Amino acid sequence: MLSHLPEVNAAFPWFFPGLVFLVGTMVGSFLNVCIYRIPADQSVVTPRSHCACGKPIAWFDNIPILSWFILRGKARCCGRPYSFRYVFVEALTGGLFLACWLLKTRATATELHPGEAVCGWVLLSALVAATFIDLDHFIIPDRFTIGLGFAGLALALMVPELHGQGPVLGEAPLLANFRSGGQALVGMLVGAGLVAWIAGTAEAVLKKEAMGFGDVKLVGAIGAFTGWQGAVFSVFGGAIVGTVWVALAWAWQTISGKKSAIAPPTETSEGQPTELGMGAQVPFGPMLAVAGALHFLWLHGWMAKYVHETVMPLFDGRVR
Question: How distant, in Å, are the alpha carbons of 145, 195, 219, 228 from that of 192?
Fold first, then answer.
């Protein structure tokens, strides 16, 4: 049956992308549960999804994206409004899954290789959950950092394409897998080490904590999926993303004359989205996550070219 998948993909090029988007929205619906429950140390399995009034949500009222619009953003049982963030997370995850499939799946008329795309789904799902939890609580649970890092190492060993490795003619089997695993390990160590040094230096200069240890672990996890170049990019790219992010929020606040939050509002009782203002504490994890996702999906080629043409000559004496 699997041997016919390339034929299906060739005959119906819209089928797999459409299916992937639907799966992504369902994963996004589950991530909403994770974002709400994990910081509160609640099970993500039981009880089933329920309204804030305590009544279970029927399956036909829990359809990703559509249900919010059908119900006009209000619970059927009690009429209580609920946040548009649920739709946003579902649509965002679906869009990321689709982009990952289109960009990372190698397909021909006779072959379909979705391994790298599947690895990307793991990374992107964790980054989405980590982003919104950090925005609400200024924490990133270990399952989205340490757990994600070890998942990246395991997937790199199983799917060498994740780090651009493949079998070489005459080479012993599994060597490509070990090369890929080695690159994942280097990426993890370089990413975590770089952020640890930056955080330690900033703390020594500012005499206060500048970055949380969750950020250190998150960049290490990103490096396991993207290699050391992706880890470095996520740090410095994250700084750029953060500057743009806050600047846009400031601009909106200035134009509208209303206080602006860093993220869409949440219904989590403990969640407190940060409002812009002098001295406001802004979590860096979401910026790292955005930069890591950008590198994995689109900017890895540019980063590799930049390192090859600009950075590497600094170490071999060829800079003119």
Answer: 11, 5, 6, 10
Query: φ, ψ for residue 265 (rounded to 5)?
Result: -65, 155
Per-residue confidence in pLDDT tens, the chain, 320 aa = 566 788 888 888 899 999 999 999 999 999 999 999 999 999 998 888 888 788 888 888 899 999 999 998 998 888 888 889 999 999 999 999 999 999 999 877 678 889 999 999 999 999 999 999 998 899 999 999 999 999 999 999 999 999 999 888 778 879 999 999 999 999 999 999 999 999 888 888 888 777 788 999 999 999 999 999 999 999 999 999 999 988 887 887 788 877 666 665 565 545 555 555 545 677 899 999 999 999 999 999 999 999 988 888 877 655 44
- Rg of the Cα trace of the chain? 21
* Distance between CA atoms of residues 279 and 41, nearest Å: 30
The residue among 237, 261, 238 whose CA lies nearest residue 248 is: 261
SS3 per-residue string spanning 272-300: CCCECCCCCCCCCHHHHHHHHHHHHHHHH
Question: Which amino acid is it at 145?
Answer: T
Name the residue among 301, 283, 310 with its Cα closest to residue 218.
283
CA distances from 66 to 25, 95, 215 (A): 10, 15, 34
Q: How far apart are CA 124 and CA 292, in angstroms?
A: 9
Q: For residue 137, what are its two tokens?
A: 């609580």
CA terminus-to-terminus distance, the chain: 57
Q: Kindly tell me the burial class for residue 202, based on how many C-beta atoms sit within 10 Å of its own C-beta (0-12, 13-18, 19 or more).
A: middle
Give the contacts of 39 (CB within 8 A, at least 6 positions apart): 133, 136, 137, 139, 141, 268, 270, 271
